[in-house]
From TrEMBL:
Gene3D superfamilies (UniProt xref): 3.30.450.180, lambda repressor-like DNA-binding domains
PROSITE patterns linked to this entry: HTH_CROC1 (PS50943)
SMART domains for this protein: HTH_XRE (SM00530)
UniProt source species: Glycomyces lechevalierae
SUPFAM superfamilies named among the record's database cross-references: lambda repressor-like DNA-binding domains
Gene Ontology molecular-function annotations: DNA binding
Domain (HTH cro/C1-type) ranges: 47-94
Protein's name in the database: Helix-turn-helix transcriptional regulator
Pfam families: HTH_31, MLTR_LBD
Length: 285
């Protein structure tokens, strides 16, 4: 947390695991017209009113109000699923809602600080494409040579074990990612929110979110949207200082040990310009 962070700003970040704040944020994002309700000029706040959400979910207004206020203990799976449908949540966000509500079927996860030797061996075997291992906070725990060359062109030192989110929200990073606003920042924050709920006792995660919210207004705005995503596959476009425009396919492989670690690989199909540019980058000494 930065020295100039106020107590109010710190408390505002407690919505990491707050079911009520999550429901309020998602309720504000539902357009009444999209769910068959009349839109009128008397609405003073965006989204649905509590009574409208309760009607759509088939629960009483009193019960839904208690749910948002944290006074409804242990809501049933049926109620949570009904609320999720009313809020038009996808499967990833629905699971996030269940976890925030304390669904006992979802086992707690335990973070680990070191990278397993088998993962290090796998990383070392990948030499034609950039690859790295990150934890649930998106700290870079390990990287291969091509990943260090790729991101080193931006001045990023992956061997120093930096945090990818901090690097991405640095003011200079926008020039290296053509889709910074529309894809990179949005997906990064949405994934961070999901992991924050999976590891609610991680003080370093809470501190990271607080720091970024204070330092970067756009991060705070994205965080307030309560977006939750997996972001395991997709394309990443770069504007690299050495090889120019580069579009790589991203795959994230979650380690199935509850540690929150993941292997991230960036690839290009052989015979394409992007593949040749990666080979050119790898030829650097």
């Amino acid at each position: 947390m930065t020295p100039d962070a106020t107590e109010a700003e710190i408390h505002r970040l407690e919505d990491v695991v707050d079911l009520g704040k999550f429901l309020q944020a998602r309720r504000a994002r539902v357009n009444p017209g999209d769910v068959g309700l009349r839109e009128d000029a008397r609405r003073r706040v965006p989204g649905l009113r509590r009574e409208e959400l309760a009607l759509l979910a088939g629960v009483s207004v009193d019960y839904y109000t208690r749910l948002e206020q944290g006074r409804a203990k242990h809501p049933s799976d049926q109620v949570l699923d009904a609320v999720a449908r009313a809020l038009r949540l996808d499967e990833t966000t629905r699971a996030h809602l269940h976890r925030l509500a304390g669904n006992s079927r979802l086992s707690p996860l335990q973070a680990r600080t070191g990278v397993r030797p088998s993962l290090q061996t796998m990383l070392a075997a990948i030499d034609a494409f950039p690859a790295l291992i990150m934890n649930h906070r998106q700290d870079v725990l390990a990287s291969n040579r091509l990943a260090r060359l790729l991101y080193g062109g931006f001045g990023w030192d992956l061997e120093a074990n930096p945090n990818f989110v901090r690097l991405l929200f640095d003011d200079d990073s926008r020039e290296y990612f053509p889709d910074w606003d529309s894809v990179c920042a949005l997906e990064t924050v949405a994934q961070l929110r999901k992991m924050a709920a999976l590891f609610p006792d991680d003080a370093a995660m809470t501190s990271l979110i607080g720091e970024l919210s204070v330092r970067h207004r756009f991060f705070a705005e994205l965080w307030a949207r309560a977006e939750v995503r997996d972001c395991n596959i997709g394309f990443v476009r770069f504007e690299h200082p050495m090889v120019g425009a580069l579009e790589l396919y991203k795959d994230q492989f979650r380690v199935a040990d509850g540690s929150g670690q993941m292997l991230v690989a960036l690839t290009a199909a052989p015979g394409t310009d992007d593949y040749d540019k990666l080979a050119l980058l790898g030829a650097e000494r």
